[in-house]
Amino acid sequence: MSSELLFSLLIFAPLVGFAFNGLLGKKLGGHLYPGVIASVASFISFVASVGLFQLVSEQPEQAKYLVIHAFDWMQVGTFRLPVQFLIDPLSSIMILVITGVGTLIHIFSIGYMAEDPGIAKYFSYLNFFLFNMLILVTGDSLPLLFVGWEGVGLCSYLLIGFWYEDHEKAEAGMKAFIVNRVGDAAFLLGMFVLYSHFGTLNLLELNSLAPKEAIWNWLDPITIGTLLLFVGVTGKSAQVPLYVWLPDAMAGPTPVSALIHAATMVTAGVYMMVRLSYLYTAAPYTMIVVAAIGLLTAVLAATMGIVQWDIKKVLAYSTVSQLGYMVFACGVGAFSAAFFHLVTHAFFKALMFLGAGSVIYGMHHQQDIREMGGLNKRMPLTYWTFMIGWLSIIGLPPFSGFFSKDEIKWFALASDRGGNWIFWGLAWVGSLLTTFYMTRLMAYTFWRDKKYSADHQPHESPWVMTVPLMILAFLAATGGFLGIPHAIAQILPGHPNHWLEHWLKPVISLPTIKQGITVEYEWLLMGLSVVGSFTVAMVTRYLYLNRIDLIDRTRERFEVIHKVWVHKYYVDAFYQKYFVENLVLSSRDLWRYVDVGVIDRLVNKIADVTKELGRGFAWLQSGNMQNYAFITIIGLIIFVLFLFKG
Amino acid sequence: MLLSLIILFPLICALVMALLPDRRYLHKVALGMSVVEFLVGLVLYLKFDHNKTGLQFVEKILWIEDFGISYFLGVDGISIWLVLLTVFLQPIVVLASWSSINEKIKGYYVALFLLESAMIGSFITFDAVLFYLFWELSLVPMYFIIGLWGGERKIYATLKFFIYTMAGSIMMLVANGVMLLLAKETLGFYTTSLLDWYKIRIPFVGGEFFSPQTLLFFAYALAFAVKTPVFPFHTWLPDAHVQAPTAGSVILAGVMLKMGTYSFLRWVVPLFPEATQYWSWLFIVIGITGIIYGALMALVQNDIKKVIAYSSVSHMGYIIAGIFSLNELAMSGALYQMLNHGISTGALFLLVGMIYERTHTRDIVKYGGIAAQVPIYTVIFMIVTFSSIAVPLTNGFVGEFLILLGIYQNRPAWAAWAVAGVILGAGYMLWTVKRVFFGPAGQVVQDHGLHDLSQREILVMLPLVFLVFFMGIYPNYFLRLFEKGIIFLVENFHNYQLFSQITEGGL
Amino acid sequence: MKGLELFTTVTYAHFLFLSFVLFALGVLGVLLRRNLIVVMMSVELMLNAVNLTFITFAKALNQLDGQIFVFFVMTIAAAEAAVGLAIVVAIFKRFREVNIRFFQFLKG
Question: In this structure, are residues C100 and C36 in contact, taking their beta carbons and an 8 Å threshold?
Answer without folding.
Answer: yes
